[in-house]
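[job 0412] stage=fold_complex status=start
inputs:
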Amino acid sequence: MSELPRWARDALAGVYDPCCREKGISVVDMGLVRSVQVEDGVAKVELLLTSGWCPFAATVLTQVKDQILGQPGISDADVSIVWDEAWTTDRLSPRAQNILRFLPPPSAVPDRDAYIAAHTQPKEQPP
Amino acid sequence: MIDDAFVFDCVAHVFNFDPKNAFGQAGLMFDNHLYAFHNALTPEADRHKLPAEEFLREWTPSDIRKMVYEESDTDMLVAMPLPLTDLFRDGLSPWESCADLAGRDPDRTVFWGSVNPLEGRKALDLMERQVGEFGARAFKFYNVRYDYGKPYPWRMDDPNIAFPIFEKARELGVNLIGVHKGVPLGPQPIEHTQTWDMDGAAANFPDINFVIFHVGLPFLDETCWQLIRYPNLYASIAATINFVVRAPRMFAEIMGKLLFWCGEDKIIYGSEAPLFHPQWALRAFMDFQIPEDLCAGYGYPQLTDQAKRKILGENLLRLHGMDVAEARTRLGTKS
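[job 0412] stage=fold_complex status=done
writing structure:
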């Protein structure tokens, strides 16, 4: 994943795909922002979707554009979704990986029970 | 029976798609989404694929009974209401019609009740009535409502909204609760159909078995983690099974993941009749094998005959306190 400018990471840290809002995982943590480049005050932002079926593409796109436009020195923003690269779970930030816990393919798990034990916190105790 | 498998279908709705039943555009959108599912996933060659004008009508208990018992290999059925009184005058699948459907075959059809927990005392009273007068053996809930033109979500781990409902179920001797998860329909926001709240429900009510319908799609990994950690969580493949013909690869990956991580004892079949005619998916499921490259390359277990028997009937029988031998004897079906 290419490095995003710090200002862009900060600006987008509060933008959420609705699927992840409840978990507090931003579009940056999800790895949905592929690149942010600025030329003559015009920001060019490339986004990936986790799925081509994502019903929230328009919402996310609008929120990203609004946030970028609110940054100093930005006069316009071209935010687009790119399709030449598939989103994969390795784009998740370590924090997001820890929260979402996507499952690996079984062939990567020599011992299912040991894997679960190693990745399962003690069960929540009822109050 | 299909081949040697006893079929206990965990969901059929007595849908009322009459346009006059819908509250405005939101209800009509919901109807149309369901028709889109029917149209997209029913195989082209299947004679039960219906044009919109034949599908979007008021279905009757007789229609459902004929479809499920006379036209398919189903042995037992859950008659399941929809309490969507925010979008439809009668909730879309009125509980009274479902009780009627169950009453026609009391040995074969099980009535699940349904209420709107946001109605508080009224909901608790209706639970008592559905169990006491109509023999409800379980309940099904829907976390998203659309009252006053906007979403009104509630959560399965809410001590004020959900827990009194679960406590009432327990008091009534009901220890089985289903909940719609994933698959947002009409104007329902998808974030409120996520499964995050099931941990709190399962942990606080370990004596109640909860069924996450539609395996919470598209949140499959999260659902698997929950099934792994809580012995009282189950997943229904209702509607999910209908990908078996049009998207067999995707279906194979869903089943492979569920089988490997959660096990064949945790998965429950449902037809969603009349949204989908049961027979084509039943036949396709019995004939289905997870492709060898997914088993060899990714380590998915095969969908064995034993797993199919459990998924199609034995698991739900167990959750209802029945077993196959007893059910076969009672219904007079041959093994």
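[job 0412] summary: Residues 57-69 of chain A form the longest helix (13 residues).
[job 0412] exit 0
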